[in-house]
Design goal:
By secondary structure, the chain is mostly helical. About 65% of the residues lie in helices and about 0% in strands.
């Protein structure tokens, strides 16, 4: 068993997003047809209705002056991440409250501080999140890399970094909002939030 030094709580196995779920949502969003745009608009409405604190946090972050590439990336990734959690867990996905966002934000900040204080640490905070939600973080990293390659000369890297951090916070917060399946063993040795 590998023991890691991190401030981010482990994500229970029942809350891990499967790669096929990520691929299905990505495929549904990659179509350039009117139905795809309609699905996206409907998803945005569901996101705001079912995750008011999280959607407000995302909207506030995206409402700041941002580079166009970072802004587009933020809109796309924030809704795609939520849609994937919704598709993966349905009614088991609970609401992320403001206190949950604050706790997740503090855990990410503390984890970054731990890594700054340990220069021999080979793992970054986003790597820790990737260990907990590999399919989600791989999806996000791929889209960030594509955006950076496509707009290398004109993109504001600090803005893209702030979007990346926003999406990591969303992934962590949604991960902890997933409730166990109905018959999940109560004595199972996993962290349950």
């Amino acid at each position: 068993m590998w023991v890691r030094r991190a401030a981010i709580r482990p994500v229970p196995s029942y809350a891990k997003v499967a790669a096929p779920d990520v691929e299905r949502v990505e495929d549904s969003l990659s179509n350039d047809d009117p139905e795809s745009e309609e699905r996206l608009a409907q998803a945005m409405g569901r996101f705001e209705a079912t995750q008011p604190a999280l959607s407000l946090h995302v909207a506030t972050a995206l409402g700041r002056p941002l580079d166009e590439t970072a802004l587009a990336l933020g809109y796309f990734l924030s809704i795609a991440v939520w849609m994937t959690f919704e598709a993966s867990f349905g009614a088991r996905l609970g609401e992320v409250h403001e206190s949950d966002l604050e706790a997740s934000s503090q855990a990410l900040a503390l984890d970054e501080e731990l890594r700054r204080d340990a220069p021999d640490e080979a793992v970054d905070t986003d790597d820790v999140v990737a260990m907990e939600q590999p399919a989600m973080v791989e999806f996000v990293r791929e889209h960030v890399e594509v955006a950076l390659e496509a707009h290398a000369d004109e993109v504001e890297l600090d803005d893209v970094d702030s979007i990346y951090r926003l999406i990591l916070l969303e992934i962590v917060s949604l991960s902890y909002a997933v409730r166990p399946p109905e018959r999940f063993p109560a004595n199972k040795a996993e962290w349950v939030a």
